[in-house]
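Priority: low. Protein: RCC1 and BTB domain-containing protein 2. Input follows.
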Amino acid sequence: MGDSCVHPTLSHECAGQENVYCFSEQRCCNSLRLTQPVQATLSSLKMLDVGKWPIFSLCSEEELQLIRQACVFGSAGNEVLYTTVNDEIFVLGTNCCGCLGLGDVQSTIEPRRLDSLSGKKIASFSYGSGPHIVLATTEGEVFTWGHNAYSQLGNGTTNHGLVPCQISTNLSNKQVIEVACGSYHSLVLTSDGEVFAWGYNNSGQVGSGSTVNQPIPRRVTGCLQNKVVVTIACGQMCCMAVVDTGEVYVWGYNGNGQLGLGSSGNQPTPCRVAALQGIRVQRVACGYAHTLVLTDEGQVYAWGANSYGQLGTGNKSNQSYPTPVTVEKDRIIEIAACHSTHTSAAKTQGGHVYMWGQCRGQSVILPHLTHFSCTDDVFACFATPAVSWRLLSVEPDDHLTVAESLKREFDNPDTADLKFLVDGKYIYAHKVLLKIRCEHFRSSLEDNEDDIVEMSEFSYPVYRAFLEYLYTDSISLSPEEAVGLLDLATFYRENRLKKLCQQTIKQGICEENAIALLSAAVKYDAQDLEEFCFRFCINHLTVVTQTSGFAEMDHDLLKNFISKASRVGAFKN
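Result:
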């Protein structure tokens, strides 16, 4: 287990096969004929079995049962940090450059508790190739440790950090919500949408406008000065930031075209990826020298190095501009890459997981359908090294949470004290829960002794979905049915449910139903959804105008649509 500390490789994609790490997360869509329900939830965390990573074979079955979060890292996937159900943090592995944070550089084949972070809850975690570690707590604090030859720990020195050190310079009044590491530089995102960077800067990856290393956190400004950043990612020696308007800003090393600017020159300050004009990006992921983004329509674009087929374009030619990646006909909801590898992965709305790029020594040049249920498994079983592309979350299988118990009781006649009669069918519910969860029921059920309520204003599928939402915080409807639920949510003033309905409709939009969904958005004054549907119609104008929905379009809506489309130049040659 005696890894030596890694030193930087400066230029090309494969030089020295440098192991450099990063994480990020993703989601979205592709052109889709929607017949099956779309599962929508505003808060979902991937649950999986950590046992697929070889490093966990060193843990006992009892220890594995206690794990709730984990991240595998290191030049050979030989180090791991994990949290337990008791909020304790443990580390295990080779401990190169003190990256386990134990105060020494001794490897450990048995899990050791990281007492210096006792009681801290991890919100975000990333690692570099030294490796160095950057961790954000749920309270917004930042801790770093490990390799520090290039000031990537942000503590103003170049001494390796053997124990976690809180980084507060220029961050003392900030709440950090996301962290990302390049090879030897670090990036953090604050709750107010600001980005700070520090560390190795030979290619401008700190975004300061120079190539001088940055020893402490420095805000990345320039084009980001008045922007609100919503997510970040790092490649080996480059950075990506997605802002709330869906634009992507990039800076740093660009020798393989990984910045997507159409060139191979380095960029020392943030620059917008102009080729994505009019495309709203939601997530970004960086491989060793390639980049993936996911749009709000579920389309994946890739650019950068491609010698292993990691762009998924069917060849091995580098691309310096964003290039669409086709994954069957299904909509993509998650993309994955990790800057220690040349591997890419994606998950579709239907639950299929695809992988491409370097997969166990093979070059897979097109997205390949796997038997996995999550993208994390791709990196556990096929990436070299077998590391995590993000902080893993593990759900216990022997305990029902309060939320899970409530889900079980929905529509259960054995425990219910209230029945709704809708379209001749009963839906079973619990008065106390409805009153707790919904203002409408809090007043309507206050002095109501009846145990049956007849409902004629809404259909059975829509009203059942509404009641189920009160138990589960999620909905499972086709976009067409979600329009009816949007009507109900508007009527009951359930704003969070309105957001879920709009999300479901966005994920299920296609050329055939786009006009109907646009009409519904206008009717229910869902302005964000209206703008989304309008942009979809413009982007697919030729097909949309040939549908029956367009032919039967309301006269006033058609008049407004043509006027607005004309203003955005949709009818120019």
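Residues 1-47 have pLDDT under 50 and may be disordered. The radius of gyration is 25 Å.
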